[in-house]
Design a protein that fits this description.
Oligomer: single chain
Mean pLDDT: 92
Number of helices: 9
Strand order of the largest sheet: 7-8-9-3-10-11
Shape: globular
Strand content: 25-35%
Largest sheet: 6 strands, mixed
Structural class: alpha/beta
Distance between the termini: 44 Å
Length: 254
């Protein structure tokens, strides 16, 4: 097994109400790699992320994190690992949603320290120390005692990134992290993601920000109709001879 590979997806399929949304997708992600997933709305990008992070159960396929099987097929059905094993696997990754998903009745600090104390069972002092460093790193040192409603959308999204990082994941998933933000606030969040890339954080990012994907990614995956239509370096994707890829990217560069 290649120890650099943190995530492997083999032959993932997922249907909703008889409609196949993900069709036989396979991919792998290496340590330190930034992979952007682009494609039109309804192409299955978010479903792929939700299945990879086990918020949705796959119908078919295999999911491997750091060499550990999280899900596999038995008798044509998808079987998941034991609860104890799943807890361990869950600790390998974090997920940042497009709508922030912060607890509205928790302060910023409590939003960040809650999971490390509950999941990792670390002391409050250690959790606070970890959170304080993250808030400083993300330019939010003065917001520890604020509540989500007192923050801008960009600040809320930075808090949700801090919350994901507080569990010290090996991989971070982003599901359209800027789609709920206006252009000015989008820049704030993209800057944070760029800083994480410089630190060699492994990231899988579903995004509509083409220029950002081009600048930041080691690899771009173009999805449509539940399948990977094209995959390659930013150079290969943005200069693709695939007509559909060119048409899609062209809309953003017009």
């Amino acid at each position: 097994m290649d120890e650099r590979v943190l995530l492997t997806i083999n032959h993932m399929s997922k249907s909703f109400d008889g409609e196949e949304v993900i069709k036989d997708i396979s991919l792998s992600v290496k340590r330190g790699e930034v992979v952007s997933i682009i494609g039109p709305s309804g192409s299955g990008k978010s479903t792929l992320l939700r299945c990879a992070t086990m918020l949705e159960k796959m119908d078919k396929g295999e999911l491997i994190y750091l060499g550990e099987q999280a899900a596999w097929e038995e008798n044509g059905k998808c079987v998941y690992a034991s609860k104890a094993k799943m807890r361990e696997i869950h600790s390998h990754y974090g997920l940042v949603f497009q709508n922030f998903n912060l607890f509205p009745h928790y302060s910023v600090m409590k939003n960040i320290i809650d999971a490390p104390m509950t999941v990792e069972k670390i002391s409050k002092a250690e959790a606070v120390e970890r959170a304080t460093k993250l808030l400083e790193q993300l330019g939010l040192s003065d917001k520890a005692d604020a509540y989500p409603y007192q923050l801008s959308g960009g600040q809320q999204q930075r808090v949700s990134i801090a919350r994901a990082l507080a569990l010290q994941p090996k991989i971070l998933f982003f599901d359209e992290p800027t789609s709920a933000l206006d252009p000015e606030l989008t820049g704030e969040v993209l800057k944070v993601i760029k800083e994480l890339a410089k630190e060699h954080m492994t990231m899988i990012i579903v995004t509509h920000e083409m220029q950002f994907a081009r600048e930041l990614s080691d690899r771009i995956i173009f999805m449509e109709q539940g399948v990977i239509q094209a995959e390659g370096t930013p150079e290969e994707i943005f200069n693709s001879s695939n007509e559909r890829v060119r048409e899609f990217i062209g809309k953003f560069q017009a």
